[in-house]
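Async update (no meeting this week)

Hi team, since we skipped the sync, here's where things stand on the single-chain job. The sequence we agreed to prioritize is pasted below, unchanged from the tracker. I ran it this morning and attached the output directly underneath so nobody has to dig for it. Comments welcome in thread, and please keep replies under the output.
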Amino acid sequence: MKLTRTLMGATAALAISASAVMAQDATVKIGDLTWTGARAIAYVVKAVIDGPLDSEAVIVSGLSDGNVIAAGMDKGDGSVDVYSDLWMPNRQAVWDEYIDGAKTVGHNVPYEGTQRMYVPSYMADRVKSIEDLRDPEIAAMFDKDGNGLGEYWAGDAGWASTKTWQVKFKSYGLSELWEPEILPDATFKALLESSVQREKPVLFYYWTPEWVHAAYDITPIEEPARTEGCEDVNLDAEDWLEVSSFSCMARNAKIYVAYSLSLEERNPAAAKFLSQMALDPATVNQWVLEIGRDGLDPQDVAEDWVAANMDIVNSWIN
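Output:
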């Protein structure tokens, strides 16, 4: 009996040890968000997990819908574990449901970003503020299809900010003169390059960090200062455009790396790293420049940066 108990104890110990190893080695799956900053961060997360953590991470190709990524993190089944660039307050519904509500999703310390409407600087003498957009002659300058409405790029179809800008143009009383262009980021970047080369009018949403600020001379247009009640937005309502209002400048965004708290059991070292990852906006902008403007492979950029900055990486993982 003593031998049997000893063998059973040894077997249990081996099972516990094996479970710990399996947990540590659980593959971390990262969402495939489309904008360059999100891709850069995703590849850095992958490079740290694959390298210094000696585990494994994959970017799930095509998994670019933020709502689907958030719901997958909530499930905790390993289908997706990381939302690499969670913009707040743009994704308030995700925060409310999974971070504050279900408490199934964790996050790191955020970095800061800005969100504005821009024109190329060769247009800045004509278009300085939201007030200028009320001028029918100015709106006509941006009418590309001849339907009597000026176009502005509001963003990609899957972005909360795309809805936000439609709410803002409605709230500013501009709907009679302007209409949104809703195009993928890569498509708009090609359009912007062509417009700048020919010095054509183009009005567009952008954010920082992003490489367009280094590639082109662009100027944000002025918006009214924030006042109490100037932002009342419910983008998840069925009639979101009708029930929302937003008639002032947006606050600077807080941008997080979010992750499934199930990783605390499935891959504790990865969970600890993701909770401690502290990004510097200037560093993110450098990654964005190299990947977006210079066309370098994001995995090469990430791996080279990790190798050259192990002091920073060690502060994230230790």
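Quick observations from my side:
Residues 156 and 184 are 5 Å apart (CA to CA).
Residues 2-24 form the longest helix (23 residues).
Reply here if anything looks off.
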